[in-house]
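Quick one: structure for this chain?
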Amino acid sequence: MKIYLYDEITKEYIETLDAYLDPAETEIKGEAVYMYPANSTEISPPQLLENQTCIFENGAWKITKDYRGQYQCNSNLEISIVENFGELAQDFILITKAQADKIAEDRLYYIVSNGKLVKNPQYEKQKAELEAERIAHLYLTAADVERGIYKAKGLDFDDILDLVNKQAGSIDVKALKIEFKANHFYRGNPLVDSIGAILGFTKEQLDYFFKYKEFPNKEVLADA
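Got it. Here's what it folds into:
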């Protein structure tokens, strides 16, 4: 005879064992009497499908969901591994390990929509905005900037001021003089683009300059 053990607390099925006869009771009653350990039943558990387990409740087996060991995330893309059987916690959905790894690598790539993990339709736009923000916060020292411009164009800050003075008032010369005395030049400063345009630098060349402290040639920029 088979008996089926279940966990004392969770009531989840554990294993199947062969029941042992109770010799004394069998002799007294003249028929087979089996010994039942605590938390066991002679009722056989149901056949289970993938992602299912069963618990013994109110004298019967009940099938329940079982996603333990699998990855899950909520709408905020907070990742965890399912530890308990039963339905997933509210707001959580199942995801694959590959998806979990991608979220950890790039939180912009996915969003949760209608209970599913899907690629963010605004991904490219948001990624570009994030990169632009990152580049805008890059900075170089005044010496880095003057050294780079001198190497690329043979000009120093005084030469640049002379060029600006020849423009039709498109740049505030006094403001530019103050910037030239600053300790740092930030890529996001609008004057950087204005001066860059006067010197013939493209936006891409300026971005590269603030990343690597030198202006690229065409071949380098094409591969960047």
